[in-house]
Amino acid sequence: MDDLLIRPLEPYDTDEAAAVWWRSRHADGAQLPSAIHTAEQVTTWFAEVLLPDAQTWVALDDGRIVAVLTLDGDDLDQLYVDPDVAGLGVGSTLVDLAKDLRPGGLALWTFQTNTRAQSFYRFHGFAEVRRTDGAANEEHAPDIRMVWGNHPEA
Is the pTM of the predicted complex or chain greater than 0.85? Predict the structure, then answer.
């Protein structure tokens, strides 16, 4: 990943970025609950919600989107890496970007079943602050709140 380019999400990126999100959520061995929206709904969400209302970045390798990062205020809201490049440092690069953009601290949610994500975020300095039964998320799956830095929830 020597030539990784990170830039803001553009309107012409939304289909490809949504496809990365979808592949990541449905990869073999994914530790996530099934998506409750269709691939088409996810594409619409990227175009109509994430593009105008959040700060979303894409990571490109050889012109192909390989990862997506969304910040919503001080929440690291989305971080999905294409399964083909998982483990090559793309996610770490995007977490470093998020920390640079939010030096006062970050928070995120991860599903309790996603132990790989929990380990990844712990490695990057995030700490668990609470667990829920999932009643407040769309999937109704138990989740974990994690924070980094001087976030108010720390």
Answer: yes
